[in-house]
Specification:
Blueprint: H1 12-19, H2 23-33, E1 45-47, E2 64-71, E3 76-82, H3 89-102, E4 117-123, E5 135-141, E6 149-159, H4 172-183, H5 193-197, H6 199-207, H7 215-293, H8 298-305, H9 309-313
Parallel strand pairs: 3-4, 4-6
Antiparallel strand pairs: 1-2, 2-3, 5-6
Helix pairs in contact: 2-4, 7-8
Length: 315
């Protein structure tokens, strides 16, 4: 089988080669994808020290790709590529962004000097299935007066599978970078002309050319995808188990409700029978009293009503 010319830029090795080693390319990516006004564009970038990169669990390190940097205004940027979605991912992104924000503080500093933190998260999965948009921006906004914003934490999630080349966007570079991330993979033999025509995206294409990687790098590249596949399989199996368990729970709950309904129905029938019995007894007593008032003997009344002489005597 003939392999394509490029490697997938979403992998750990390729993503970090592009955006973790070329400041002008990650700057271009951030300016294209972040919700920045024209006067807020990033002018220069420096990478975080290695010891400041957020820690990862053994599982996460093979599904999440990090690039962390700051600009000349000291704004902090965390760029992540998430291979599969988990419900806890948003909270983990919020936690790491909060840590980066708090890390700016030192004794005696002015809080006014704190700079915002932007977490740009590409998700190679769909997590908002009922929403058409692929771009999701979270920040601190007044619930009534939306112009009132606390400029601190900015969380952006991009659902890559939802992006289509014809998706409307006023930002040309946003479309080009997203096309690069979604259209280029191991099967790509020739890149689209629009991507080749842009100097920055074309440079990124050259970086991910298969021929530029050593055998050792290819080993780690393949290992990354193997671990991603393993994790997805485990996540799928776990999801199936949870769905089966949930289905069994719902079935048991349905049976319990059905049993409760039958019990209530039986209780209602019992009460109805008791009511009818009481009514019948009351009628016999009333009849016995009527006959007694007519001076019939207790024996005659007993024969007529079925009541015992002692019961009739007590009336």
């Amino acid at each position: 089988m003939i392999k394509g010319k490029y490697l997938d830029p979403k992998a750990d090795l390729t993503f970090k080669k592009i955006f973790g080693e070329h400041k002008h390319l990650v700057k271009s990516l951030l300016n294209a994808l972040l919700p920045l006004n024209d006067d807020e564009c990033i002018e220069s970038i420096e990478y975080w020290p290695a010891d400041k990169i957020p820690d990862r669990t053994e599982v996460e390190k093979y599904s999440i790709v990090d690039v962390c940097c700051r600009d000349n205004k000291r704004r902090e940027f965390i760029v992540e590529m998430q291979m599969s979605w988990t419900e806890s991912f948003k909270k983990r992104v919020l936690l790491n962004a909060s840590k980066a924000y708090v890390a700016q503080t030192n004794k005696g500093m002015f809080y006014a000097n704190l700079q915002p933190v932007y977490a740009l998260n590409f998700v190679n999965d769909i997590f908002m299935r009922d929403v058409e948009d692929y771009y999701h921006y979270y920040h601190l906004v007044h619930d009534k007066f939306t112009d009132e914003v606390i400029d601190g934490l900015h969380l952006i999630f991009v659902e890559l599978p939802k992006f289509k080349a014809q998706t409307f966007s006023e930002r040309k570079m946003q479309v080009l970078w997203l096309r690069f991330l979604t259209e280029i993979d191991e099967n790509t033999r020739e890149a689209p002309a629009e991507l080749l025509a842009n100097a920055e995206v074309n440079e990124a294409l050259e970086i991910v050319e298969r021929a530029a990687f050593t055998d050792e790098e290819m080993f780690f590249y393949d290992k990354f995808w193997d671990r991603v596949s393993t994790q997805r399989t485990l996540e799928y199996d776990w999801k199936m188990k949870m769905e089966k368990a949930e289905a069994k729970t719902k079935e048991a709950e349905a049976r319990t409700k059905e049993a409760e309904a039958r019990t209530k129905e039986a209780e209602a029938r019992t009460k109805e029978a008791e009511t009818r019995t009481k009514e019948a007894e009351d009628k016999l007593v009333n009849t016995a009293r009527y006959l007694k008032a007519m001076s019939l003997s207790n024996e005659q009344i007993a024969k007529a009503t079925g009541l015992t002489p002692a019961e009739i005597e007590s009336l």
